Amino acid sequence: MESATPAEIGTQALPPSDQWSTAPVVPAPVCRFENFLGAERAGTLLSYAISREADFSAGTVLDPLSGQISHKGRSSLVLPVTSTVFSAHLADCLPLVQEILGHRAALTQTLTVLTSHGEGGHYGIHTDASRVHDVGTALSAVYYLHRRPRGFGGGQLRLYDTLLADGGARPAESYRTIEPEHDTIVFFPAGAFHEVVPSTCPSGHFADHRFTLTTWISGTGSAAAASASASASDGPFRIWPWLAHAAERTRPLADVDHDHDGASPIALPAADPATRLALPAPRRTT
Ligand SMILES: O=C(O)CCC(=O)C(=O)O
Ligand SMILES: [Fe+2]
């Protein structure tokens, strides 16, 4: 059969315009790992979280303008923890994660909490600006744990896109949905708007909750410095300063010394050259 000549869509069907939209909607860079710790360690960590039921307390939010701590828009249980083993494992993943996310700034410390969401658990739209030194360069890492079969419903993480318009940036209406699957971890910019949608827990048992080990990873550098040192050719993403722009009004105005949920920083070790992850080489197809 002879191939037809493609039809031209004329100006009657598509009038020319100088009014095309110039406002891109940009997804936040994200990187996920499945089977992150492996079945045995994930199971042990889940049992540990369940065994600490009596020590969890209601998670808080910090108003960026007034500095007031409240429970507004959030129903989560939290337990501040530290783990040098987990931080060391994160450190080994970070070179690869940073490469994938187009992230360039140095990262030096972590802040970690265990969280639990049961019946009616949720965490409204927010950024993690209140947890980190510089919202333009920090990362959030959420590691999920739950019993199988899964004892809760809902509880998805929504990671909002960012709309770049009028020289500024703001959260878009569109988002990516991340399922809180057991033994998976997700990394994303701490300045990206995100939300935990309401969860249900029909049994009402704590052991059936949705658990996380949530870590905020900060450096001391600024987004401006990181983007100034990056040339257009050295990576696919230069979205970080724009995310920071969108998150600006969620940053606490005064320097906050203490985490509002009581988490304490620990130093991020250097990646171990023997165990650090690297981007696998693509397999040749010929
Ligand atoms: O649990 C999640 O999926 C995200 C938690 C979160 O956004 C936070 O603790 O700041
Ligand atoms: Fe968050």
What does this structure look like?
- The protein has 286 residues and is an alpha+beta fold.
- It has one domain (27-267): q2cbj1_9rhob like domain (Jelly Rolls).
- Strands 2, 3, 7, 8, 10, 14, 17 and 18 form an eight-stranded antiparallel β-sheet that branches. Strands 1, 6, 9, 12, 13 and 15 form a six-stranded antiparallel β-sheet that branches.
- A hairpin with a 2-residue loop joins strand 12 and strand 13.
- 35% of the residues are buried.
- It is globular, with a radius of gyration of 21 Å.
- Helix content is 16%, strand content 29%.
- 2-oxoglutaric acid binds at residues 115, 123, 128, 142, 157, 180, 194, 196, 212, 214.
What is the topology?
Blueprint (H helix, E strand, L loop, with lengths): L24 E2 L4 E3 L5 H13 L5 E2 L2 E2 L6 E2 L3 E2 L1 E5 L2 H18 L7 E9 L4 E5 L12 E7 L7 E2 L2 E9 L2 E11 L5 E6 L4 E3 L2 E2 L9 E9 L4 H6 L11 H8 L18 E2 L19
Antiparallel strand pairs: 1-12, 2-14, 3-7, 4-5, 6-9, 7-8, 8-17, 8-18, 9-15, 10-14, 10-17, 11-16, 12-13, 12-15
The structure holds 2-oxoglutaric acid (AKG) and fe (ii) ion (FE2).
